[in-house]
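ARCHIVE CARD
SHELF: 3
SLOT: left
DATA:
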Amino acid sequence: MLTLIEDENEKELAQNQFMKLMRSSWRKKEHREIAWRPSSRQCQISHNGSFWFANVRLDKGEKTPRFWNAVGEYRPNGNLQSTVEFNVPIESNTTIVAGLFARDDATKTLYLMHDGSGRGG
């Protein structure tokens, strides 16, 4: 059985474990421009030559403070675009942001999940 992680400190620990796993698996690092309409952002990415991963904590001035996690197809030149984004709310689980962390009660394995909605996040 999976249990939703709701505590802010536990979410931060889960996010840090996820980042550590991704960065240790995809060891190449760069600072790149991640583009989306109508904006873009300079981010440190980790990549494996085929795909990239980036994350940013969005909390200052945000309506819904969250961890932004993105994965996309890697290209050596130009801006990168995300293929998949998982936004996990920091303070509370909300219907506005669809990402979440859950823990398997038996194995204590953490999962990054999405509620399946089409509203972004």
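SLOT: right
DATA:
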Amino acid sequence: MTVAYIIHFDVKPERIDPFLDMLNAVLSAMRHEANFLECALNRDPDNPARFMLYEAWADHQDVLDVQLNRPYRQAWHDALPDLLAAPRAISIWNPIRSLQGPASMAE
């Protein structure tokens, strides 16, 4: 079943650049995974050290059993305690509708 993850990160202000470098490397690698659907990284306009990541995957069990254990994620997971001011907050959702781009004439 399709699953979406909303992950909030409170990054140490002095660690924003390494945080973004490492996260962007993970995002670039995971986009090639067969069960990956989409993701979006967002920044809080009132707090430049707070980020929200939206990830959608085709299979929750695959994320748990396979994706979280990919070698390209290891350095990222190991670095999080040094990068974050607080533990990340993760919530799991089941998407029911997704829209991208301009509305079509048929909608």
